[in-house]
Amino acid sequence: MYQVLYRKYRPSTFSDVCGQPQVTATLKNEIKSGRIAHAYLFTGSRGTGKTSCAKILSRAVNCLAPVDGDPCGECEICRGILDGSVLDVIEMDAASNNGVGDVRSLQEELTFTPSMAKYRVYIIDEVHMMSGSAFNALLKTLEEPPAHVIFILATTEVHKLPATILSRCQRFDFRRIGAEDIASRLEYIAGEESASIEHDAALLIARIADGGMRDAVSLLDQCLSRSKAVDEITVRDAAGLTGNDHLFALSDAILKKDASALLGLVDELHNASKDMIRLCEELISHYRSLMIIATVKEPDGLIITTGEEMSRLKQDASRYSLAQILNILDMLQLSLGRMSSGAHRRTELELALLRMCKSEDSAAAFEKRISALEKAVRNGVPAAAVSPVSQERSPKPAYSEINKLSDGAQPFDGWDEILEKLSEQSAALSSMLAGSRAYANGAYMLVETSDMGADMLRTPNARESLRKLLLEQTGSTWKRGPYRPTGSMPQQVGNNPLNMIEERAKELGIPVNSDNE
Predict the structure, then answer these.
(1) Cβ burial, residue 379 (10 Å; 0-12/13-18/19+)
(2) Which of 30, 103, 427, 459 qualifies as a cystine partner to 137, CB 3.0-4.6 A?
(3) Strands annotated E in 346-482
(4) Distance of CA 122 to the CA centre of its chain
């Protein structure tokens, strides 16, 4: 029977484990020195080597002739554990054996000494699935097990374990495996299978696997079923990914606010049997890359991609403002949540893309207004040029008015609750407002935040979200504005040069249109 690659190439020694030196080095030293703990806890995301290390450790502590802390793999104990003839290593799945009765059955077995090996080793996978009563029954056993018993607990969700369990185990945290480490392992496995894989294709698999070696090897197995020479196209076809050209085309249509092109691209991809959730995830990954490029000087270490694609990403990122990218990411994340909860996937994605076309881009509008005001100041446009319509519009509050509002403002005690609820609706806006404060004065709610937070609050989605939350929290509708501490300079109000130019234009008698013109 064919053996899948992730089982065929499962590490047999600590030296074979990829990307976890902080774990393997310590375990090898413990074996060599004989300082073996009675309970171990392996934590980390899926496919990072927890179960593999547990099996290696179970052989190493019982091996008759260990080699530098690794099991020899040749003695009768090592061979017997591998082929199942030695029954002193017991693997349990806590997802299906999670009751107090299962723990009591286990406790009854502990009194028996090993039949062949030195230690009876219990490997309990997904231990976080145990019930509370099962954990309580396990406590005493974990604290004082018989001398011939070793427990190895493995979990992907360590935060669900009681502190009493954590304190009784020697904990090892498994990190996500680096992309280059995964790519190197995939190239080795492909060579062993008389096949080949391009380095860029191996990196693409590593990016899809998100630090999990098992997922990466499983995807390689699927690719090798298609072709013995694996390239990026093979990987994309096997994983059901949308090609990069489609992602850049979607990005271009979003920038141009071309709704017709966006819907046409979605229709083309849908007819090609592309999964809409996967497409949404790829768009999120694309805009995450743009966000990193827009905020980090050296983004290459944070984005796993080829050199050619990195150049395209940098070019694409140069056409966006950071506020645009964050707003798009926010919409895509909300859309992905709705799609996962059972909404019509294609329609939900189309709605999100159309919202991107219709939403007002505050950053671009500010830039236009700054340019217009600077030109007006340079040219000295007379006050008579103000149109009757513009004169009727109520201007935005000047800095002197903001000062008056801020002088009488009182801290708003419910702001933390507002931010907590906001985090459930908009992760991007919530992160931008982290550490902000709010002050109430009459009908005004004044927010003291960073420049970026102030920019985000001016987007239509953010304004509407904050309006609804304030209405739910207080039962009142509030006017919103920036908070300016008494005595601060004008640029401290969000450090927005636009307001400074507007104030100066007002002093010179130059008309200022209150709209984004």
Answers:
(1) exposed
(2) 103
(3) 410-411, 437-441, 444-448, 479-482
(4) 33
Residue written as tokens 């009908």? 443
Give the three-class secondary structure for 253: helix
Looking at the domain assignment, is residue 513 inside a domain? no
Q: Is residue 187 part of a domain?
A: yes
Number of H helices, E strands in the chain: 25, 11
Q: How far apart are CA 159 and CA 166, in angstroms?
A: 10
**How many folded domains does the chain comprise?**
4
Which residues is 151 bridged to in the sheet?
39, 122
Domain extent at residue 190: 179-239
SS (H, E, C) 103-167: HHHHHHHCCCCCCCCCCEEEEEECHHHCCHHHHHHHHHHHHCCCCCEEEEEEECCHHHCCHHHHC
pTM for the model stands at: 0.61
DSSP state for residue 395 in the 8-state scheme = P
Burial class of residue 450 in the structure, from the number of CB atoms within 10 Å of its CB (0-12 exposed, 13-18 middle, 19+ buried): middle
Q: Whose structure tokens read 């130059």?
A: 510
Tens of pLDDT, residues 261-284: 999 999 988 888 888 898 999 899
Give the residue with greater pLDDT, 90 vs 503: 90
Q: Is 57 helix (H, G, I), strand (E, B) or coil?
A: helix
Judge if 147 and 165 occupy the same domain: yes
